[in-house]
Design goal:
The structure is a homodimer of 539-residue chains. Chain A is built from 20 helices and 16 strands. Chain A is globular and about 75 Å long. Chain A has helices at 21-36, 51-54, 60-67, 84-97, 117-125, 130-133, 139-153, 158-177, 190-195, 251-264, 281-290, 299-304, 321-325, 332-345, 384-392, 399-403, 411-414, 501-506, 509-521, 524-538, and strands at residues 5-11, 43-47, 75-79, 103-111, 198-200, 203-204, 213-221, 227-236, 273-276, 359-366, 371-379, 438-447, 458-465, 470-475, 486-492, 495-500. Chain A has two domains: 5-113 and 207-405, Peroxisomal Thiolase, Chain A, domain 1 (3-Layer(aba) Sandwich), CATH 3.40.47; 438-538, OB fold (Dihydrolipoamide Acetyltransferase, E2P) (Beta Barrel). In chain A, a hairpin with a 2-residue loop joins strand 15 (486-492) and strand 16. Chain A is an alpha+beta fold and 539 residues long. At the A-B interface, helix 3, strand 3, helix 4, strand 8 and helix 10 of A face helix 3, strand 3, helix 4, strand 8 and helix 10 of B. Strand 3 (75-79) of chain A pairs antiparallel with strand 3 of chain B.
């Protein structure tokens, strides 16, 4: 375990802020330094995701060390897309653990509201795979594709899905209403949620974290303090959705969790509260399962039972989460850790304090879950070894099931593979590129606010061919599709387009001609598949 | 000292490369992994300065972990402008030292040649202070301002300055000619140097590092190997040139050097060879002095004596430096460390090998010397303690003088202040903003290739008022100025404009009217100064 402690935490209110980034960072940093009771730090660690494009600033580590009147000390900047705030915390903790510095200041922030929303959506979409962006995929659309697939695997009706997502949004807004640093403080009713517009079906406006400005800060030290860093873990997965083993479980989270729990010598059973990256409400569900906080398939039921509410068995996002606290992309990962610190210090007002919190976890997602981080903090008063002894003897809550890939009720979803074991590097899988001319729709969405330059709405889908290769595609003429539907896939300028097979039949002569032309261009295997279909039709 | 060793090093040839960044990084990484004799690493550390603007890529840590077929393992990206390659090496070494990982892969790269040169110049200029950029300041222009000031303080004639800069360029090109990874391999004659065009007087084309593509990679491990990390140091200085104590000594380097030498328990006398950030030839001179490799004012003489040549007493930039090896901004800091590793391993061909190299240093500059890094490597066969004993007993070459602020021949230049001592945070100096209406030219340049959107040529200067406050300014109608000249300063839209006082006199009635109008607008103090001038004229 690392000899790293948190000496003080601070953050700004998140939301639309008139101040420049440097002023926001300074506000958060001064609060953290005050809380730490110290003026001097030896180094500055900066987390900003994309000042270059959001505000036209470069050289941000230098800019911020100046803005903080700390000019002279070492200063570096880290970036891992929307997990930047967690990444910078981990790097700073490693430097303190290595005894390179005794005390460092970690700041993370983002200034996003200077630009119009479609442009921000476009900048954020650049974290996605370049090829998959060609059809107009945005972050909300990608999240919607994952959410619908999740619902389908869980056999939820649209109404049931709405209900559970509403429940998460309402919970997080209720928590945010108690948090003076949250962007949204007015709460949210289920009715209001259900009346809100779709951003990318099935995700509504209230399923998506807002565009925000804000900053967070922490002081880390090697001198024992009440809150200790117990575990750090980071894991990656393919940027391209099409290459992933599973669409509905984030391997990057599972790998990060495994490393963090191993460093902390803990199991998920030890966790008393968690901040889970709910950039989209459904990610809170998936995150809780990936972290092993609930057995696969159990998160839904536990949330219905209220387990994750502020007064529940395992409060999740007591701060309001990204959903209600706001989501300045570079800052969120660090703001989660600020919340855990305050909860463990028991310094918050009773109304929003999680009682008896001894051990807390934060999970942060970078990009569309391509680079995720898990951070575990605990009270350090019991001393490291005693604490480890107490915790490692605790019964694992769900990790055993999670570690072996989940053979439970949700076997199908988990069969896509367990996370890497024993610290080994996961085997590089051959990248299967290209797509067949016929496939089956795995999931779809109607993207209603695509990035700048794309028409709205836009029907997007993930299609899988009989070789198991996937593609993100749009449908021809925005035609609706459904999960499991057989479609023809054509590709032009790198953009895959889907045409429902059934539609070709309905269109008669014209379609049959098109179908024949298509057959002539197909390789042997696919021609056979097309013939099978024709045979099926005859029968 | 840290228990961190270099297991293997690799890099691509630098230059204009057709491949995308991911392919370049892969080439360098495969070479480093081969050299390390290992396939498995536990984490990836990525250094890229500005993929967002150079190539439109975001989420680069994730993109590169995929490109390297390492998907799954932790991956983070660091950025500190043009010192990015050094910053990522330091962060990776800290993580290994903290025993978070036993073995990590560090990669750094940049892809710059996809964009037209004026656009690249503009993107690079964004590391400069926002206010100082308003008048069209570019990196070469800023370096030229510093260079002319340096020459003036050293009392060099333009011919002497040309001669010493030519000497550095010729040396580095000669070294580059021997390096198969260098961008320029044809060598450079003094005549050719002197015939080359000015980019920003007194800097010519051959004083400036080129725009390049390329990547470098290293494998770090906690298992003893022949090359060991001895010292790491990072220091910052104001981004704004106007706020610095000295224009001609980089405090960021001096602070970084102090930390690195302290960690290594060495003095500059122990250094057998150095890679010094020569983005501009004059920076090699300044760097050698700031590092304590030569006493202040001595670097010039030592270079004339050939001390820094490949077969000299203290070879500097045996790789060819940024000047001849090329300067893919994110990669250069790591490429320097790759060169040191190869030199210490004695694995290079005899023609370009520095004999008896036991201890080597790299200095990397971020931005216009706002965030600098020093890395010290050594042979580890003697064992850490023995080595430290041997080295720390060596007579300091120049560090004593450097540490006490330099009271030698170059007192004026060094009087601006010593670096921070004893690890204390340097005191925040009050920022003196604003500028008086009258000042004296400290240095100037004719910028012939300003960033996109500015007319060429552009006469720029740094002016200092009687309160010691500085401003970067342009001259009215591009009028020439000289060092020490008295000028009037006007400000419009944040851009400071200088008009020579003498010119007003020559212009007769019209000018006198303008002069009276100006006087009426001036505060008391300045009006008096203006009267003094009038009195002086009368006398």
């Amino acid at each position: 375990m690392l000899d790293v402690y948190i000496a003080g935490a601070g953050m700004t209110r998140f939301g639309k802020r008139p101040e420049p980034l440097s002023v926001l960072v300074r506000e958060a940093a001064e609060m953290a330094l005050r809380a730490a009771g110290q003026g001097a730090v030896e180094a500055l660690y900066v987390g900003v995701m994309n000042a270059e494009q959001f505000t036209g600033d470069s050289n941000v580590a230098s800019e911020l060390v100046d803005a903080l009147d700390l000019t002279g000390i070492p200063a570096v900047r880290l970036e891992t897309a929307s997990a930047t705030g967690a990444a910078v915390f981990h790097a700073a903790a490693q430097a303190v653990a290595a005894r390179v510095y005794q005390s460092v200041l970690v700041v993370a922030g983002e200034k996003m509201t200077d630009r119009p929303a479609p442009l921000v959506t476009g900048i954020l979409a650049e974290v996605l795979d370049r090829d998959e962006r060609l059809c107009g995929l945005s972050m909300p659309a990608a999240a919607a594709l994952i959410t619908l697939r999740y619902a389908s695997e869980q056999r939820l009706t649209p109404e049931q899905l709405s209900k559970v997502l509403a429940r998460i949004a309402v919970k997080n807004h209720a928590n945010g209403a108690l948090n003076p640093y949250a962007q949204f403080r007015q709460g949210l009713s289920e009715e209001h949620y259900l009346r809100s517009a779709f951003v990318a079906d099935p995700l509504r406006l209230y399923d998506c974290a807002p565009i925000s400005d804000g900053a967070a800060a922490l002081v880390l030290t090697s001198t024992p303090r009440p809150v200790r860093v117990l575990g750090l873990g980071n894991g990656t997965d393919y940027v391209a959705l099409r290459l992933r083993r599973s669409l509905t479980s984030f391997e990057a989270t599972r790998r990060a969790a495994e490393l963090a729990f191993r460093m902390a010598r803990l199991t998920p059973a030890a966790i008393d509260l968690a901040e889970v990256h709910d950039a989209f409400t459904s990610f809170e569900l998936i995150g809780c399962e990936d972290l092993g906080l609930f057995a696969p398939g159990e998160a839904l039921k536990e949330m219905e039972r209220g387990a994750t509410e502020l007064r529940g068995r395992l409060p999740v996002n007591p701060s309001g989460g990204l959903k209600a606290r706001g989501h300045p992309v570079g800052a969120s990962g660090l703001a989660q850790i600020v919340e855990l610190t305050w909860q463990l210090e028991q310094s918050l007002p009773a109304e929003r304090r999680v009682p008896r919190a001894e051990c807390a976890l934060a999970q942060s997602i970078g990009g569309l879950a391509s680079n995720n981080f898990v951070t575990i903090l605990g009270k350090s008063r019991a001393g490291p070894l005693a604490a480890a002894g107490r915790w490692s003897s605790a019964a694992p809550r769900a990790v055993a099931d999670s570690a072996k890939g989940g053979a439970g009720a949700n076997g199908a979803r988990r069969s896509s593979g367990a996370p890497s074991q024993g610290g080994e590097r996961p085997k590089a899988r051959p990248r299967q590129e290209g797509i067949d001319a016929v496939g089956e729709v795995e999931t779809f969405t109607i993207s209603r606010r695509p990035p700048a330059g794309f028409p709205a709405p836009l029907v997007l889908a993930i299609v899988r061919d009989r070789f198991g290769r996937r593609a993100v595609a749009r449908t021809r003429n925005n035609l609706p599709v459904r999960i499991g539907q057989q479609v023809y896939i054509t590709t032009k300028g790198g953009v895959h387009e889907l045409a429902p097979k059934s539609r070709l039949r309905r269109l008669g002569v014209l379609a049959r001609r098109q179908y024949r032309r298509l057959r002539q261009r197909l390789p042997g295997g696919v021609r056979r598949a097309a013939s099978d279909d024709a045979a099926g039709r005859a029968a």
